[in-house]
Amino acid sequence: MNIKYFLLLLFPVLLFSQHSIRFKVVDENNLPISRAIVIVSQNNNQIRFGTTNENGILVQDISSGQYDCKISKLGFTTLNNTVLVEKEQNFEFILKEEINKLKDVVITSRPKIMRIKEDTISYNLKAVVDGTENKIEDVIKKLPGLDIDQDGKVLYKGQQIDNILVDGNEFFGNKHQMATQNIDADMIEGIDLLTGYTGFAKASGGQKGIALNLKTKDSYKNKWITDLELAAGLNTSFRFHSNSFKFFKKGNVAIISDYNTIAKTPISREDYNEMRIVSEVDSENGEFKAVETPTFLNPNAFIKDKRNAFIGLNYTSLLGKRSKITVSNIFNKTNIAEENARLQTNIGETQSQYSFLENKAATYSLNNSSLKWEFNKSKTTFISYVVGFTPNGDEDNQDLLRSANELQYSKSNTNFSFAHVAKVQSTLLKTINYKFTARHSINDNLQKVDLFSQQNLFDSTHDTINQNQKNQEVNISLNNAFTITKKSNIFSLKINLLSQQSRFNNTVFQDDNNDYAVNLERQSIQTNFSWTKKWHTKVYSILGFTSTAVNSQFQETENAFIRYEPNLSLTYTLSGLNKISFSYALDHQLPALNQVQQTDLVFDFQTFVKPSLVGFNQIIPKNTFSLQYFGVNPKNQSVLFSTLSYDLEQNAVSNNTEYNADFIETTAITTRNRKSIKGLALYDLKFRRLPFSIKTTLFYLKSIGFSQFDSVDNQVEIQNLTNRLQLISNFRKSAVQFGVDYNFTRKTLEQSIADFTNTTQNHQLTLSLRGKNSTKLKWDLGLIMDNQDSGFSRNKTFFLNANIQYVFAKDFKIIFNGNNMLNLNKSQIISTSFNQSFFTESIISIRPGYMMLGINYSL
User: Fold this and answer.
1) Element (H, E) at 180
2) Domain extent for 506
3) What distance in Å separates the CA atoms of residue 129 and residue 213, rounded to the nearest whole number?
4) Which InterPro entries match (predicted)?
5) pLDDT for 764-820, tens place per residue?
6) CATH number of the domain to which 154 belongs
7) Measured in Å, how far apart are the chain's first and last C-alpha atoms?
8) How far lies 82's CA from each of 19, 85, 109, in Å?
């Protein structure tokens, strides 16, 4: 094959000719119907839209292919038809007159909460909003099928959605809490869940995602909306928060800032990871790995002291009818103090426990800037470019007292990540949807560890150790996807060229011989073929096959091999929106550089990492089987989603642990199979005549794997059970609403060596009241009873929280915030954690409760 022609197939950015198609719409008497709406779609993506002229005619340019046509006109029955476009053609559609007969209407149920049409779920907020809501997250929590996690992220079917939109425009991308925790509930008149969201692109062939679109009221559009809040009170509590929004037809501008001493952080762990890898674009090859996140992003406020400063800027605007730009910048700086009393159990030894105190002071800062440009070159060609960079620095200083030995432990990280992505979607040969994506990312991490002890460390002759580590990873990928539709079949072919280079340098300054550098490189060509077949109106399947040719180099050693991975999905529609599906996938993973390193490393003050025993070309097969069910009851608008999955991972990477007098040594090894079963059930129960709704979440995980102690096999079994039950009232025309929230968590760890077993349980019951008095007063009150059992100790804590706002003048409110008001002095909680070497119970000193009084100004 001519090489130029081959490259043209892989990387085209071309426009192709289209056919002029004439649609004519008439009635049963063959008279033309004007202003009839004609919608042309393909694969559930709208391709063309228009209305007929006075002669009942609409002319559109359309490429060859099979399309779904929907023709509607008020007073006529909507017509749905399928057409095949092969050349310039004329299509005629006959609409039948709709006969309406008025009947007596008796309302026997409450208003319907949602309306489902194709890939859009529209929520009727009038059926759930009662006026006691503050921010938009208070509304979303009431909507069936949706929930909000503790970070402010919106969940659908138990998973985070992709984007939050405001009037169809992006708003801080997938940092949902910028919208959910800052936009007032009063500003929104409607909410749509878009389950087939393809973004700004008009061209078909893009990957579909899930987005939540917030529709603002007309009174809040095309003007600046500003909200300023200042409050201070007991226990050095202070907060300044400001929101400034402008929502206009072509985009939005948002500026959010916050400074507080009450342990609030506006960004989450997921945000941190996403900012470093530009994850808003579809990552089809899975080569962009998640990174270790700093501890200041813990979602809870259970620390002794935390001061946080934040500012975020988002700008989205149409540059013209076909072009759009989105710019965002986020800066965050945090200072924290932690105080923990820890009981550590060596789980590979019998009756081996150590107690130590930990005092930690840390400073963290990060900055993220990103830019996205999107351009619809034509109706069939879409181009986009995304670039982002995130520098950040973390520094921890700890004082530890373990037995008679006092240690000072300092650890710092300086990170810089840069990533950019270019994407083109177009049409080839009039029938093939084509997408090309080029990605390039760089991650640099410099880590410094300093240890100062009263005793020699790690069986060395040094009581002081200074270690520097430098990690760099460079990823490049070129992805090509071809999709063609033939009647009830969809064929897709993907060709991906991938390159990954990882470098690692380690230096221990007390040892002149310990200056180590290692390099791991992988290049691969990946092809993926999938066939989607609609066998029946109720049955469709997806059959796929992936082959990957990999060339891997580690130091002076090189290896080449091929991986084959099949996958299968089968879906059956029971009735309406009730669906059940089964899927199977085989995935082959390769170890990362940190799992194959070949030198001695200081991991922390008590852990020494030895050279890995895992081969750099070790293939780790993973089989996944899953069964899902999704159903909506149209009578009472209840939603049920459940999933059950089973994973079997062969030749898993694990650890071998060797205990010494004051430290441990760990080595990465390959062990036998690791298997797990996971179940999730979500049920939103609505009552037709009762003013209540019940949300139930049940999660279960059981995992069985292997590790080693002194090279002896150890079976590890982990079980997690979580149950959450929420009862939410929705009294019509009532000034008071209530809620009951019960959470139960049970975690069990069992190990065959030393017969170690632990069960940690937590019962949490939350009683909440919220209410209003006309338009002046709005309040909410919550009592939390938390019962913790670590298996070693028990602790019961009561939290009383309150928020009150009173409008005393136009645009001015007096606000009161109270948190943990029953513990205004020192209080503590119990938590547990474990890895393959230690089980640790921590008694954590948490920030005393506070009460703040302040003022809010809205403009």
Assistant:
1) helix 177-180
2) 405-730
3) 17
4) CarboxyPept-like_regulatory (IPR008969)
5) 999 999 998 877 888 999 999 999 998 888 988 899 999 999 988 888 999 999 998
6) 2.170.130.10
7) 66
8) 17, 10, 38
| Strand ranges in 319-381 using DSSP code E only, listed in sequence order | 323-346, 353-376
Same domain, 134 and 54: no
Report the 10 Å Cβ neighbour count for 260. Answer: 20
Q: Which residues contact 848 (CB under 8 A, 6 or more apart)?
A: 235, 820, 823, 824, 825, 826, 827
Number of structural domains in the chain: 3
What is the amino acid identity at position 637? Answer: Q
pLDDT, one tens digit per residue, over 507-549 is 877 766 667 788 889 999 999 999 999 898 889 899 999 999 9
For 243-310, give the DSSP string. EEEEEETTEEEEEEEEEESS---SS-HHHHHHHHHTTTS---S--S---PPPGGG-SS--SSEEEEEE
Indicate whether 367 pLDDT > 80.
yes
Distance CA 496, CA 498 (A): 6
When mean pLDDT is compared across 295-309, 351-365, 455-469, 599-613, the lowest value belongs to 295-309
Burial class of residue 364, CB neighbours in 10 A (0-12, 13-18, 19+): buried
Strands 607-609 and 664-670: parallel
Q: How remote is the C-alpha of 841 from its chain's centroid?
A: 29
Q: Are 357 and 341 in contact (CB under 8 A)?
A: yes
Q: Kindly state whether residues 191 and 62 are assigned to the same domain.
A: no
**What does pTM read for this prediction?**
0.76
Same domain, 136 and 73: no
Nearest-angstrom CA–CA distance, 315 and 149: 26
